[in-house]
């Protein structure tokens, strides 16, 4: 009888020890430095820091080494513009591959275009999904256009340069480091195409006797007044 009681007491002691151990581990896992919080959503000041770093480093593209201090070593990079594979999106995993890819684009950009600059049009943080969204623009001149003497003027060159527009989304984790980057479709400068379309419309519309709605309404009002 005494032996049975002693065994029951020993089992209760082991159970209490295990419960205390589990409570200890569960308390430690809720610390801010845990991996679970690391993959959580960032605070607004984290996103504002990324915003400031992008304002500084985006203009350095095609000119100098960019800032990669706010990325995670295992950052995922999806390029939906330059690297389209047969399977779909081309994806890089790792900071070194990300740096190598941007460095390659920078080198080839400087080889193909004597004048090329990148600028940030708008940078906005979004606390809802923990992201910072960048609207960027690349201005460039070809080798043929660079021989135009007017392009030696910096103001004229920047005003009349061709451009490419695009967006980039930077997703941050609970520590404020970027773990995913998505570069999406860009918009090409179609001012020349708009001019050609306008000239073509000016030639076709008089022959088809087509009158725009606004102009037709204006003519009807003038007739009523007369």
Sequence stretches where pLDDT stays below 50 over 5 or more residues: 1-8, 12-37, 84-88, 192-215
Q: Class by helix and strand content?
A: alpha+beta
**Counted beta strands:** 7
Distance between the termini: 121 Å
CA-atom Rg in angstroms: 30 Å
CATH topology of the largest domain: Nuclear Transport Factor 2, Chain: A
CATH class of the largest domain: Alpha Beta
Quaternary assembly:
single chain
CATH architecture of the largest domain: Roll
Summarize the structure.
A hairpin with a 2-residue loop joins β1 and β2. The protein is of the alpha+beta class and 226 residues long.
Overview of this structure, please?
A hairpin with a 2-residue loop joins strand 1 (71-85) and strand 2 (88-93). The longest helix has 27 residues, at 2-28. Helix content is 46%, strand content 28%. The chain has 226 residues and is α+β, with helices and mostly antiparallel strands. The protein has two domains: 2-30; 41-195, Nuclear Transport Factor 2, Chain: A (Roll), CATH 3.10.450.
């Amino acid at each position: 009888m005494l032996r049975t009681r002693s065994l029951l007491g020993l089992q209760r002691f082991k159970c209490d020890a295990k419960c205390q151990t589990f409570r200890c581990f569960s308390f430690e896992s809720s610390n801010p430095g845990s991996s679970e919080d690391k993959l959580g959503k960032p605070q607004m000041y984290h996103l504002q820091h990324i915003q400031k770093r992008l304002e500084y480093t985006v203009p350095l593209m095609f000119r100098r080494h960019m800032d990669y201090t706010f990325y995670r070593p295992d950052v995922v990079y999806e390029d939906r513009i330059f690297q389209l594979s047969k399977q779909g999106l081309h994806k890089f995993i790792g900071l070194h591959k990300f740096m190598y890819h941007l460095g390659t684009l920078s080198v080839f950009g400087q080889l193909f275009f004597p004048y090329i600059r990148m600028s940030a049009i708008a940078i906005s943080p979004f606390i809802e999904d923990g992201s910072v969204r960048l609207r960027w623009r690349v201005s460039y001149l070809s080798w043929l256009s660079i021989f135009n003497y007017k392009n030696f003027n910096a103001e004229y060159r920047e005003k009349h340069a061709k451009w490419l527009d695009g967006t980039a989304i930077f997703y941050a984790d609970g520590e404020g480091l970027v773990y995913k980057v998505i570069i999406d479709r860009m918009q090409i400068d179609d001012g020349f195409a708009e001019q050609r379309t306008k000239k073509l419309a000016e030639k076709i519309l008089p022959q088809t006797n087509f009158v725009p709605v606004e102009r037709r309404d204006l003519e009807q009002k003038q007739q009523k007044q007369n």
